[in-house]
Design brief:
This protein is mostly beta strands. The chain has one helix and eleven strands; from the N terminus they run E-E-E-E-E-H-E-E-E-E-E-E. Strands 1, 2, 3, 4, 5, 10 and 11 form a seven-stranded antiparallel sheet that branches. Strands 6-7-8-9 form a four-stranded antiparallel sheet, with no helix packed on it.
C-alpha cells in the first residue's frame, strides 16, 4: 500500500512545470540522511542516472526532506529570483540546518518542514512542491 503524504502545492506556484518521476530507495547509502526526521538530500539528473526526470526546472535539481512520517520534495529553483529577475538560481540546503534551504542570490531562507515557505528574506513565494509518497522503503516523487 502506498501512502500519500504530500500533495503538489499549486498555490503561488511560479516555477514552470517539468516532468518529475523517480524513486528513492532509503536503503541506498546515498540517501542515509533521509532515515532521520529533519534530514534532507539533493538529487539531479546525474543521481543514479535518473536523467531529466530528477532534474527539476532548468536542471537545478530537487530537494527531498524527511518530515515526521512523511517526505517533501521541492524544486531547487528560487521562486523569488525567477519572478523578480527572470533568473534560474539554485537554492541550497543550509549547511548549518538541514531543515531550511537558502538562496545564494536573494538570501531568502525556505522552511523545508513547512511546504517550502519563505522563513526569512525578501522571497514571498514557496518553493515549487512535487508529490512525494512513501511505502516504507521507497520514496516516490512525481508531479502528476
Amino acid at each position: 500500500m502506498v501512502l500519500s503524504v504530500n500533495s503538489c502545492n499549486r498555490n503561488n506556484d511560479v516555477i514552470p512545470d517539468v516532468i518529475v518521476n523517480f524513486n528513492l530507495d532509503l536503503n541506498d547509502p546515498e540517501f542515509v540522511n533521509l532515515n532521520a526526521m529533519g534530514g534532507s538530500v539533493t538529487v539531479n539528473a546525474s543521481t543514479n542516472n535518473w536523467g531529466r526526470y530528477a532534474a527539476g526546472y532548468d536542471g537545478n535539481g530537487i530537494i527531498i526532506y524527511a518530515g515526521v512520517n512523511e517526505f517533501f520534495a521541492y524544486d531547487r529553483t528560487c521562486p523569488h529570483d525567477y519572478v523578480e529577475n527572470g533568473l534560474s538560481i539554485k537554492v541550497n540546503i543550509n549547511p548549518q540546518s538541514s531543515i531550511t534551504a537558502i538562496c545564494p542570490e536573494c538570501g531568502t531562507t525556505y522552511a523545508l518542514s513547512a511546504n517550502g515557505t519563505p522563513a526569512s528574506g525578501v522571497g514571498r513565494y514557496p518553493l515549487k512542491n512535487y508529490k512525494a509518497t512513501f511505502d516504507g522503503r521507497f520514496v516516490y516523487v512525481r508531479n502528476y
